[in-house]
Amino acid sequence: MDDSKNLSLFKGLSNYIDKKEILISIVNQLEKDTGLDYTKVEIDAENPHFSEMLRRDLANHLKKVAGQNQTRFMHLIYRVDITQAKMNKLEMDEFYFHNLSELVLNRMFQKTITKRFIK
Predict the structure, then answer these.
(1) Please, what are the averages of pLDDT over each run of 10 residues along the chain (119 residues)?
(2) In Å, what is the CA distance from 60 to each residue of 11, 15, 19, 46, 66?
(3) Is there a domain that residue 111 lies in?
(4) Residue 39 lies in a domain
C-alpha cells in the first residue's frame, strides 16, 4: 500500500471550511471509541502526514488488540460501529488492519458530520 496516499476521509474534509474543528472531533471520537491517546499531538488538518499517522497508529492498535484479546477487539469494532457485512468484505491479507483502520476512520468522520448536522 502507498502510505503517501491520503485517506478518502481526509479528501472529504476539503469540502468543509472548519477542517481543523472536524478533525479535532474525529480525533476525540477516535480516542473515546478506541482508547488511543492523542492529547500530546498537534492536530494539523493541512498536513497529509497527519492522516497517515492516524491510520498507522490505529492499524497498529487494532492489530495489537486483536492479537491479545479477540473479545476485546470485537467489542472495539462494535463500539466504533463497523457492521459485520463490512468486516466480511475485508480480505484477510497483510493489509487487513490497514483497510480496517480506514473503515474506522471513515466511520469516525460519518459520526462527526452526522452530529454536526443534528445540532
Answers:
(1) 46 65 90 91 84 93 96 95 92 95 93 83
(2) 22, 29, 25, 23, 10
(3) yes
(4) no
